[in-house]
Amino acid sequence: MRAVDEEIRRAARRPRGAGAVTGLALALGLLAGCGSGDATGEPADKGAASGGSAGSGGAAPAGPAYKGPRLPGLAERAAWSLPAAEGGSAPGLLDLGETFVFAKDADGAYVTDFDAAGEPERGKDLVLHMSDEPESLVLEFRDAKTGGVRRTMKVKSDSVTATTWHDGVPALAVGTSGTTESDGLTEETVTSTATLYDATGKKLGTSELPQDVNRMVGQSTYPAVVLLEGYRVGAADNTLSLTPVDGGETRTVDCTGSQADCAFLPETGEATGASAFAPLITGKYYAGFENASDFQYEPEQVTLSDLATGRKVWSSADVEPPRGVKFTDEGDRMSEGVRVLRVSDGKVLTAWQTAAGSDVWIDAWYELGGGAEAGASYPTVREPLFAPSGNLVAAATDEGVVVREAATGRQLWAQGAGEKPLTPLRFSADDSVLYGTTGDDTVVAVDARTKEVLAKSLPADHVPLFDDASRYGYLGTEDGFFVFAPAS
Questions:
Q1: Has residue 212 got a pLDDT over 50?
Q2: Whole-structure pTM value
Q3: Tens digit of pLDDT for each residue in 382-436?
Q4: Residue 27's Cα: distance from chain center in Å?
Q5: Distance between CA atoms of 223 and 241, rounded to whole angstroms?
Q6: How far is Cα 334 from Cα 326, in angstroms, rounded to an integer?
Q7: Pick the residue with more confidence: 211 or 391?
Q8: SS (H, E, C) the chain
Q9: Is there a contact between 128 and 12 (Cβ–Cβ < 8 Å)?
């Protein structure tokens, strides 16, 4: 029997790497496992769950009091909480937007958060449960504001993960696997299936997940099939395909070039050719790569195509690179590094490497339907961090953080001499607070518009995550799991 790859667990918790796109943090459903089982999605005993019966928001469950430091942007007292397990591990959860999904095992204990030690860079959890054999679980769908149980569901599964449905809507993927034994001549085969549910527990669709195609990611081999935006991502023969779970035409990612080898990166939700990167799916569009080759005569380009029609709607070949990008005497860019970072309001945010080997990139917006720049361009060292509304963006430079208005590029503030460079981690759900770490790994929080320091030394396990839909913040510590309303 094939053991669950521990690297999948780590990647599911890993912070976004260079070029990852804000908004794809919940886009992966990494699914693995072996054995046999089923995910029936049966309702559990409707009266048994604490905090309210199935189908209602209920009242906040009894739980421990929060004793940690005040968290900027959030109320002083927790709105509701759940106790930690023996040993100090907080319950794990998946954030589906105004709904938190927890899991209880056969003994009635919450599946714990195996990153309870706390890492400031950590993002939202993508994996709630992963096992070698199918296990009986009860899933709890709790109201993010009150903690009341809206629904419970019995499943027998080897994976419970977060994914997205169309247009980035958060969804739940419950995976099962089965083994077909050899008849003496045929090979033993393992098949996997994922059933997708929305935040209310309504079934969205079911997808088979073949296990026979693998792709190297870093130092570990992953099943090269994930669920993203309601599509099954397939990888075979150096090409990527997108098959809608709810039926429809499969799209093949364009990947041209004599040595083209386009790949999907499950850790970030990106696709890549050779030097170009883009979110595989962003909104209604999917990525493609032209001349994605290591032995090429024309520069590599990144494209966007319409998921509904397959028609190409944008290409980096059709736009002028922003100021700051360097060219040879022959007029060629000194670096083919280009990324699509974000698509919003009919515009494409791109990042262009200034020269080969350079740490400096120039971010620039373009009109989706043409080549005109659609806003100011500005230099960054690492990928930008967007506020939940999309109105603000924090970008790291050699001197530290610069915060700008995303649409206009207007600078609100920047760090300078005599300040510890801040690495931005996340904005609060209302855009008001920016959390980050300094060079000595100290966690600080500042006013996102003024740079005023609001907290200068938070513990590593006290950097809250935020549910964008409800604007509530939450965190797990050795004392339990705590949820806070926005500060009044």
A1: no
A2: 0.85
A3: 788 999 999 999 988 878 899 999 888 899 999 988 899 999 999 999 999 999 9
A4: 5
A5: 14
A6: 6
A7: 391
A8: CCCCCHHHHHHHHCCCCCCCCCCCCCCCEECCCCCCCCCCCEECCCCCCCCCCCCCCCCCCCCCCCCCCCCCCECCCCCEEEECCCCCCCECCEECCCEEEEEECCCCCECECCCCCCCCCCCCCCEEEEEEEEEEEEEEEEECCCCCEEEEEEEEEEEEEEEECHHHCEEEEEEEEEEECCCCCCCCEEEEEEEEECCCCCEEEEEEEECCCEEEECCEEEECCEEECCEEEEEECCEEEEEECCCCCCEECCECCCCCCCEEECCCCEEECCCEEEECEECCEEEEEECCCCCCCCCCEEEEEECCCCCEEEEHHHCCCCCCCCECCCCCECCCCEEEEEEECCEEEEEEECCCCCCCEEEEEEECCCCCECCCCEEECCCCEECCCCCEEEEECCCCEEEEECCCCCEEEECCCCCCCCEEEEECCCCCEEEEECCCCCEEEEECCCCCEEEEEECHHHCCEECCCCCCEEEEECCEEEEECECC
A9: no
Q: What is the chain's length?
A: 488
